[in-house]
């Protein structure tokens, strides 16, 4: 197993649900966008399902044949608590999916593809388990400039000045459209759409987002409180009269299909 996978698995074992705590309140909803690709009767696989937030939404849409896979037992325990023991949850790696060929109509992945490597192996497995003409829908993080400066752009600028510890994570190609198109060449009907997800909140709420990022865990511990105080000072000029901070995160929404006949 890649050292970054070991690091990520431990991180999620300790902090299950971090992604859903941030993005369930995001607008537009990245979870709803993924769930909207499912049709009644579809067999759905959610890669890196985390605490089951998307699986729960799929269930509310009437999708009964949905399976979640994640390498973190902590996340899967949280998913079982959310969904109940009848949920089909599998511990495993996206690079070696324990499913038969053409098992699913739809494969989804919420903010995890860019963390996986070798990402080519993941995408080959996605193609293998999708039926001919099946759909892959994913949301990936991206280096997408905000239209105006907000709390997150200030945070990113501060983070660039910090030393980090631990292994490098993911594949840089997944953070840009050119790299994604290169990786997705074996698929057809590829669409990539950059959007900004509104995560605005009070300074405390935005700092809570920061505290559950990979970056803060990789910082020198003594620097975290120093950085938070600097951010609170930076953000004063952005505070709205209602005490809210504008905050958005750039992501890319991806859809791709397998060839109808292969």
UniProtKB/TrEMBL annotation:
InterPro entries per the UniProt record, alphabetical: Diverse_substrate_MTase (IPR051052), Methyltransf_11 (IPR013216), SAM-dependent_MTases_sf (IPR029063)
Top-rank taxon, per record? Bacteria
Boundaries of each Methyltransferase type domain copy? 45-137
Q: Keywords, A to Z?
A: Methyltransferase, Transferase
Swiss-Prot/TrEMBL GO biological process terms: methylation
Keyword check for Hydrolase: no
E.C. code: 2.1.-.-
List the Gene3D superfamilies: Vaccinia Virus protein VP39 (3.40.50.150)
Molecular-function GO terms, alphabetical: methyltransferase activity
Q: Which Pfam families match?
A: Methyltransf_11
UniProt similarity note: Belongs to the methyltransferase superfamily.
Mind telling me what this protein is named? Class I SAM-dependent methyltransferase
- This protein's species is Polyangium sorediatum
Supply the source organism's classification.
Bacteria, Pseudomonadati, Myxococcota, Polyangia, Polyangiales
């Amino acid at each position: 197993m890649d050292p970054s996978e070991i690091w990520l698995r431990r991180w999620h074992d300790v902090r299950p649900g971090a992604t859903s705590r941030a993005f369930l309140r995001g607008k537009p909803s990245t979870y709803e966008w993924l769930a909207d690709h499912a049709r009644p009767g579809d067999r759905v696989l959610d890669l890196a399902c985390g605490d089951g937030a998307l699986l729960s939404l799929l269930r509310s849409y009437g999708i009964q044949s949905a399976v979640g896979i994640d390498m973190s037992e902590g996340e899967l325990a949280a998913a079982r608590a959310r969904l109940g023991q009848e949920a089909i949850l599998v511990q495993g790696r996206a690079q070696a999916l324990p499913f038969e060929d053409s098992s699913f109509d739809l494969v989804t992945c919420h903010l995890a593809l860019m963390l996986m490597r070798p990402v080519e192996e993941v995408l080959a497995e996605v193609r293998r388990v999708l039926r001919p003409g099946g759909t892959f829908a994913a949301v990936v993080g991206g280096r997408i400039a905000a239209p105006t400066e907000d709390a997150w752009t200030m945070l990113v600028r501060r983070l660039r000045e910090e030393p980090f510890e631990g292994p490098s994570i993911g594949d840089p190609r997944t953070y840009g459209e050119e790299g994604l198109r290169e990786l997705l060449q074996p698929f057809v009907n590829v669409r990539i759409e950059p959007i900004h997800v509104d995560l605005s909140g009070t300074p405390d709420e935005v700092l809570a987002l920061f505290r559950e990022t990979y970056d803060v865990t990789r910082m020198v511990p003594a620097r975290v409180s120093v950085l938070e105080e600097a951010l609170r000072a930076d953000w004063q000029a952005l505070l709205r009269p209602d005490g809210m901070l504008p905050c958005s995160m750039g992501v890319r929404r991806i859809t791709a299909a397998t060839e109808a006949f292969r």
